[in-house]
């Protein structure tokens, strides 16, 4: 499991959950799940991305938990969820199904938001029975369904075999990230965040990412390098909104456009000028606001209905 070196105070510190439980996936993998907010409130499920943890959603949890039941979980090998030898998109889908079944009542609907690999988790689970039974609407943040290596612009090279090959090696690297130093912050900011990101945002993201064990980072990086979930996008039938940063080097806006074109029920794409890959941290009000709107529109029963 990770070293959990997230920030301990301030706006990026993760709130204390109302309760904690363990969801057990199809292969026996155990997943750390947190529930925030009042029981009986409209439900929101948050799936974080590669090398992150529930701490990544601190801003959304803090805001939404006032009047929503917010369910956040650590992907296998991340945060407090133990690592597993099974690393695949099917495992991601199994895990999301396990979380939904462990936390939602039969027939209960939730808005599901996924960032980066969390969005890919949603795509992987789109045709699963538990997902279709419980997902009312989806928010996809800074994600893509395929061609991640080919489209990445983290390495300042022209598109082609050289850039793709080097990008694949970076994703599959097991080199330790080491402590969070000024150099490490600059590297992380360049690769994942917009030029105007505040120091506190950078520090919070760096601590979360550096806490991910390198073997876990390498294993899931290999999955991302070969990702092909285009079929999952076509099966994602619930109302779905897409958010992308225009300066995202990991999943550039071309991915958002491809998602919008393929989704059966796309509500639109919101492009955030100058922002990078970490949109829930870089633009917390926007992401939280979109989740609130989806909850109000698609999960709350209207009077007279």
Number of strands: 8
Strand content: 15-25%
Number of H- or I-type helical stretches? 13
Radius of gyration: 18 Å
Major β-sheet strand ordering: 1-2-4-3-5-6-7-8
Give the termini separation.
46 Å
What is the average per-residue confidence, as pLDDT, rounded to a whole number?
94
The SSE string, one letter per element, is EEEHEHEHHEHHHHHHEHEHH
Largest pleated sheet: 8 strands, mixed
Q: What is the SS-derived class?
A: alpha/beta
* General form: globular
Q: Low-confidence parts lasting 5 or more residues at pLDDT below 50?
A: none
Helix content estimate: 25-40%
Quick recap:
The chain is α/β, with parallel strands linked by helices and 305 residues long.
Give the helices and strands, then pairings.
Blueprint: E1 19-24, E2 30-36, E3 43-47, H1 58-64, E4 69-73, H2 89-103, E5 110-115, H3 117-125, H4 129-134, E6 135-141, H5 148-151, H6 161-171, H7 182-192, H8 199-210, H9 214-225, H10 230-234, E7 240-245, H11 253-262, E8 266-272, H12 279-282, H13 284-298
Parallel strand pairs: 3-4, 3-5, 5-6, 6-7, 7-8
Antiparallel strand pairs: 1-2, 2-4
């Amino acid at each position: 499991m990770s070293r959990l070196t997230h920030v301990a105070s301030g706006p990026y510190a993760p709130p204390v959950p109302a309760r904690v439980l363990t969801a057990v996936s199809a292969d026996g993998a155990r997943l750390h799940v947190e529930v925030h907010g009042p029981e009986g409130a409209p439900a929101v499920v948050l799936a974080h991305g590669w090398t992150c943890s529930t701490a990544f959603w601190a801003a959304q949890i803090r805001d939404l938990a006032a009047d929503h039941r917010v369910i956040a979980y650590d992907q296998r090998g991340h945060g407090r969820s133990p690592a597993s030898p099974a690393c695949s998109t099917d495992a991601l889908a199994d895990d999301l199904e396990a979380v939904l079944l462990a936390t939602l009542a039969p027939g209960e609907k939730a808005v599901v938001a996924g960032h980066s690999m969390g969005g890919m988790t949603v795509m992987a689970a789109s045709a699963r029975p538990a997902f279709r039974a419980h997902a009312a609407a989806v928010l996809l943040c800074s994600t893509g369904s395929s061609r991640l290596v080919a489209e990445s612009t983290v390495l300042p090279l022209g598109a082609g075999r050289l850039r793709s090959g080097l990008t694949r090696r970076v994703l599959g690297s097991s080199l330790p990230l080491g402590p969070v130093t000024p150099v490490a912050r600059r590297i992380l900011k360049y690769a994942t965040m917009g030029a105007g990101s505040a120091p506190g945002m950078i520090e919070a993201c760096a601590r979360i990412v550096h806490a991910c064990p390198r073997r876990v980072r390498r294993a899931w990086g290999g999955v991302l390098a070969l990702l092909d979930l285009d079929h999952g996008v076509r099966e994602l039938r619930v109302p779905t909104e897409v958010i992308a940063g225009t300066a995202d080097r990991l999943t550039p806006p071309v991915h958002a456009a491809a998602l919008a074109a393929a989704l059966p029920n796309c509500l639109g794409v919101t492009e955030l000028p100058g922002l990078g890959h970490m949109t829930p941290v870089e633009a917390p009000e926007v992401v939280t606001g979109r989740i609130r709107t989806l909850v109000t529109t698609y999960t709350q029963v209207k009077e007279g209905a």
